[in-house]
Amino acid sequence: MALDPGFAGRTYPPTAVYEVGREKIREFADAIGDPNPVYRDPAVAQDLGHRDVLAPPTFPIAITWPAALVIIDDPELGLDFSRVLHAEQRFVYARPIYADDQLTATVVIEDVSERMGQGFLSTRTDLVTVDGEHVVSGYSKLVVVGAGQEAQS
Amino acid sequence: MIKFADVAKGDVLPAQTFPIRRVDLVKYAGASGDFNPIHWNERFAQSVGLPDVIAHGMFTMAEAIRVVTDWCGDPGMIVEYQVRFTKPVVVPDGVAEDSGARLTVTGKVSAVNEDGTVRVDLTAMSGPEGAEKVLGLARAVVRLP
C-alpha cells in the first residue's frame, strides 16, 4: 500500500470535548512515577502562579494520540496500524494544561512522503479550549514500515 | 527556584536514574491509553522481531523531562519539548526489586536565548551496560523567571 502524498494538508474535524480533571492528572503523574506536588495539590500549583493543578509536559499525548487514530482509521489512507512506528514527538506549549480545561483536538496531516520502501507521516494535533484558546500542539512523526510494498499475506 | 540570570551555557543539570519495571509499563498503558502489546506481552513483542517487551517511547520521554522540571521548579515553564526515539528501552521481566531496566538522564544548557528562554539538551541512556542512547535530538526550551 503506497502512501499518497496528496493527503498532506488533510485536516480532520475536532474531537469531542475532553474534560481533563485533577484525578486524571494525578493518575498520569503516578504512572510516570513523578511525585511532584504541582501535579496533585492545587495550593502548591497556585503558589507558583497557576490557577489549578497542571498536567505533566507529556500528558497531552493521552489526548493527541487517541485523536490521531483518526488517521490510522482513515479508510482512504489505508494504514496498517501494526506497521506504524512512533519516530519523533514534539510539543509546543502556549501554556500548561490545567485540571479544569475542556479541550478539543484537531488533527492535521502536515506531510506525507515515501523513501526506500518506508512511509513517513508528519502530523500535528492542536489542543484548544472550548473557548478557542490554543493550549498546546503535539507534532508526531510516524514511520510506516514497508509502506512501499504490497502487504505479504 | 532557578533564575534566568543565574544560568549559563554549559551548565549541567543534576542527573537522574529511573528504574523501569514491567508494572510501570502496565500503569503507563492504563494512564495513557496506549495498550499496544509490545509494551506488556513478551510473546507478541518477540513475534514482531523485538528482543523482549519494550517501554513506551512516550514513557521514556516523560521520564527524561523530569530532569528539567525538577531543576527549574515549575513544569509550566516548559515552552517546547521534543525527542527522537532512536532505540527501544528493553524491559526484561523479573521478580527482584531491581529487575527491569534503568534509564539514566543527563541534561546540559546548550543555549541561553535573548528572549528569556534557555535550551536544555538531554541524553537518555539505557541497555544492560547503560551504554545505549535511547533518545536522539532530545531538547527542551524553558522560560525562566
Automatic annotation (TrEMBL), chain A:
This is UPF0336 protein KGQ19_31490. InterPro entries: FAS1-like_DH_region, HadA-like, HotDog_dom_sf. It holds the Pfam family FAS1_DH_region. Belongs to the UPF0336 family. Residues 10-136 form the FAS1-like dehydratase domain. Gene3D superfamilies: Hotdog Thioesterase.
Automatic annotation (TrEMBL), chain B:
Gene3D superfamilies: Hotdog Thioesterase. It holds the Pfam family MaoC_dehydratas. It comes from the Bacteria. Transmembrane segments: none annotated. Residues 9-118 form the MaoC-like domain. Belongs to the enoyl-CoA hydratase/isomerase family. This is MaoC family dehydratase.
